[in-house]
């Protein structure tokens, strides 16, 4: 399975869009020591967020809920870093295409990540 690369100049809000965050660690999600399985590294549903209690291997929490004082350190597409409280993180903070989302909301369809 191949995926088209996302060009940085195609990210609508690079300084506000999360690229990378602290990974959760638990019996259902061991910390990776090598980059061998990228299929479970992306955040694409609210159950992957730190506010989720799900421990399902596919749909369970992926972003650390309590690694850094009830939040996560994140790297944005624009290169800036910041700490975000677990309770404040939303799936929209991972969205790269706001224009498609806006069109979809106006037409009643779904947007893309």
List its salient traits.
113 residues; mainly beta
List the helices and strands and how they pair.
Elements: E1 18-21, E2 71-76, E3 81-85, H1 98-107
Antiparallel strand pairs: 1-2, 2-3
Mean pLDDT: 78
H-E order: EEEH
Strand order of the largest sheet: 1-2-3
Indicate the low-confidence ranges by residue numbers: 109-113
Q: Radius of gyration in whole Å, from Cα?
A: 15 Å
Helix/strand class: mainly beta
Span of the ends, CA to CA: 18 Å
Beta percentage is: 5-15%
Report the principal-axis shape: globular
Largest beta sheet, briefly? Answer: 3 strands, antiparallel
Number of strands: 3
Report helical residue fraction: under 10%
Number of helices in the DSSP assignment: 1
In short:
This protein is mainly beta and 113 residues long. It has one helix at 98-107; strands at residues 18-21, 71-76, 81-85. A three-stranded antiparallel beta sheet has the order 1-2-3, with no helix packed on it.
């Amino acid at each position: 399975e191949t995926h088209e690369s996302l060009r940085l100049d195609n990210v609508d809000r690079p300084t506000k869009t999360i690229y990378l965050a602290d990974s959760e660690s638990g019996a259902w999600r061991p910390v990776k020591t090598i980059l061998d399985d990228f299929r479970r590294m992306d955040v694409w549903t609210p159950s992957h967020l730190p506010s989720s209690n799900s421990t399902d291997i596919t749909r369970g929490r992926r972003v650390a809920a309590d690694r850094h004082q009830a939040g996560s350190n994140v790297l944005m597409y624009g290169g800036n870093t910041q700490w975000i409280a677990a309770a404040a993180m939303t799936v929209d903070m991972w969205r790269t295409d706001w224009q498609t989302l806006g069109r979809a909301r106006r037409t009643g369809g779904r947007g893309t990540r």
